[in-house]
Amino acid sequence: MDFTPYAEWQKVLEEAFFSPAWDGHPVVMYMDDDEAVAMQSRYGLEVPLVQAVSRVISADEPKPYEAVERHELSRRSDDRAPAVLPLLACSVIAATRMANDGIRRANNYHSHFSQLLAGREGALTSAKYQSVAGMWQRLASWQHRWGAYRGVCTIPSPADLPHNQARIGYALSQAVLRGTDRQLLPKFFEAVRQHHGTAWPLAGAVLVEYLERWGQAHSFSPGFMRAASHPEFRPLVEKILGNFANVWDGSPFFVRQGIPRAELLVRFENRRLGWLARLSKPGKPEYELSGGVLMRRLGETGYYALDGLKLPDDRSLRTGLQLSGEGIVVGRPASSLVLLRQNNDLDCRTSVDRFVPGEQHMLLAAPEAQRDVETVLARAASPGIEPRRGKLSWMPEGWVLHHKVVFEDAVTLRQAIRDVQGTMLAVQPAPQYKPYLQGGLPLAPKFNKRLYLVGGEPDLVLPDGATGDALLDGQAPQPPFPARGVPVSLWQRKLPAGQHRIQLEGAEVGFLTAEEAPAAAEPERVVGCVLTGTRADAFAATRDESTGLVRGAQLGEAGTGAVPRIAFCRRGAEKTVFVASDGRAWTVSEPATPAWWDRLQQAPSDYYFEIELRGCGGWIIQFRRGAWNADPVSPAEPGFDAEPEHQGWAAAVLEAAEGSRDPLWQPYVRKAREVQA
User: Fold this and answer.
1) Left if phi > 0, otherwise alpha if psi is -120 to 50, otherwise beta: which for 563?
2) At what angle do helices 410-420 and 370-380 cross, to 10 degrees?
3) Which of 45, 111, 184, 504 has its CA at a distance of 20 to 30 angstroms from the CA of residue 279?
4) Which of 582, 573, 586, 583 is nearest to 659 (CA)?
5) What is the CA radius of gyration of the chain?
6) Which of 173, 241, 178 is nearest to 206 (CA)?
7) What angle do CA 439, 441, 444 make, to 5 degrees?
8) What is the pLDDT of residue 552?
9) Spatial distance between the Cα atoms of 585 and 549, rounded to a whole number of angstroms
10) Residue 493 gets which letter from DSSP?
């Protein structure tokens, strides 16, 4: 199949909807027939969007999107959006055709989708759509990992989708709000808040009621208004309006995408509230803002002090705040809640967008939000949380402080917040689109972060909206996993020692169990940074003969006569390992940047560091941003017989088994499974 036109559309769609220019702006991937034509003309693409996608799917096959999924896996990267955007854009076009059809019901989505891509109805059925829903979930997970830097995610959580829209609801959510509608929302929100009172944000259901009454007066599009009144589209309109209300900064003026936005944070230090600003990418040392406010960078951080801005009070916290300067906008959403958590970079508490389970929070609540807050705390917080209603001089008048607030169970917390609705909706934990493991008794985290003691297996946390259909080590679990709502205690399953896999609705989670911790080599000397000529090397001197595991960055044993091979490693990884084709493995220690680095006339980039390999080839595997990545360094196929001493090598390879789709990587994964068989 020719993926060239598809790849060109992928690049264009990522630039249009998920580039850093969207930093801080909610992103709706709206696409209809007219927009697709306009975008093709604007970017000079030869092949229309629908045609580019139709070429790479097989409508009559049981798995029509398999080629697209293989294409995505071969190009998966933390830095780039999943290579599924053209197909997802077509799924939105199908939803807009349905939303604009005032006759047929919403359950006719698949006939529109099939007609669009296959040229006839009945070819691309609902039974084949599961993988498309998974693509939406992977896109949402990727966007959430970037925070707001690639745009604020508006793709709904699986738990927020009505049962009859469990798969198509992702596309429907992006089809209801045009760009012109989006520009009208700030003035609409201002009118609603003035009429409703000071409490903000309001639940999406309340906003839709105002939309039905006032929408025509604000010139919202007929399609958006029809979607709001349609019983099957209404829940999605409620959700998307709620998302936009959560990040509205109180200003009636729309800030266009592409204008850098700094996040205005509340700071608590020395029993005093103050302001900070944060940029997610490097900016100028100073900015002059409206009202005579000077935004001044703090050291080499991304945080800024705001000189001349009045300290936070009841009004500025409730109604939001927006300041503008030359080439920048600084704002904070309107909210009746302030949620603060320890900021390790600044050694103080700063405001955050959401609760993080297991972390300690400080919560300030305005009078209109106190009932909802106390209800959620009573249902979901760890015991011992008491409000402080005393006259604390630094607190806004009438507000209540709850300190040392901890929520251990994210599922219980999300359900409690959804039950009360109201202002708490804005701070619920981030949606979960994939299963993950928590807790358990790890044996040797430095050796393998997913190695647990037999009987101390972790809990499995199911994603929002999970159905419970799963396989445990290739078999249906007994008893079956619950649909969702309670973490699954895997230790109760009495699993044997060894490798275990959980497959759940297209996702897979793996871990290892053992009776005791494996032996791991430790260096005789502390890993350090030594200057030799003009190059710095991290090194270690020993190798454990039983495991073959060595720590350090100067690798190889072929002696100084071997031709050195220089490889580059990304800095900032949580773990870096080199696995050689001869069955050896080294944990690579990242050298610190030398003190003399900035005294060079042209200081090299410190984004990467070098390792020197002598006489061996293999793969560098790194765990960064929550995922493994494997990069080749002249790899040959593994050329050794599987022996027990290769357990350390095999454990490292299997931990990063999903780190690359390069065919050269697969022999390493197969050999590692052979070693552990």
Assistant:
1) beta
2) 150
3) 184
4) 573
5) 27
6) 241
7) 120
8) 41
9) 5
10) G
Q: Which residues contact 172 (CB under 8 A, 6 or more apart)?
A: 95, 99, 106, 109, 165, 233, 236
**Segment 14-49, tens digit of pLDDT:** 999 998 888 777 888 999 999 999 999 999 999 999
Distance CA 293, CA 311 (A): 12
The alpha carbon dihedral of 418, 423, 427, 432 has a sign of positive
Closest CA to 649 of 588, 578, 584: 584
Mean pLDDT within 80-105: 81
How many CB atoms neighbour CB 577 within 10 A? Answer: 26
SS (H, E, C) 232-301: CCHHHHHHHHHHHHHHCCCCCCCCCCCCCEEEEEEEECCCCEEEEEECCCCCCCEEEEHHHEEEEECCCC
93: phi then psi, degrees, rounded to nearest 5: -55, -45
Residue 286's CB is within 10 A of a number of other CB atoms, namely: 12
And the tokens for 350? Answer: 């700063």
Across the chain, which distance is largest between two alpha carbons, in Å? 81
Would you mind telling me the total number of residues written for the chain in this entry?
A: 677
For residues 317-341, one letter each, b for 16 or more C-beta atoms within 10 angstroms of the residue's C-beta and e for the rest, the string is: bbbbbbbbbeebbbbbbbbbbbbbb
> Which of 641, 643, 640 has the alpha carbon at shortest distance from 676?
643
User: Counting beta carbons within 10 angstroms of the beta carbon of residue 600, is it exposed (0 to 12), middle (13 to 18) or buried (19 or more)?
Assistant: exposed
Percent of the chain with pLDDT over 90: 19
* E strand or H helix at 191: helix 179-196
**97 token code pair:** 């055709």
Cα separation, 577 vs 634, whole angstroms: 15
> What's the pLDDT band for 538 if we cut at 50, 70, 90?
very low
Beta carbons of 100 and 92 less than 8 angstroms apart: no
Alpha carbon of residue 251 to chain centroid: 28
Residue 334 dihedral angles phi and psi, to the nearest 5°? -70, 135
Q: How far is CA 452 from CA 161, 443, 515, 522, 644, in A?
A: 35, 5, 9, 21, 20
Verify cis geometry, omega within 30 degrees of 0, for the bond prior to 235. no
The Cα–Cα gap between 439 and 223 comes to: 47
If you ran DSSP here, which 8-state letter would residue 297 be given? E
The phi and psi torsions of 380 (rounded to 5 degrees) equal -130, -15
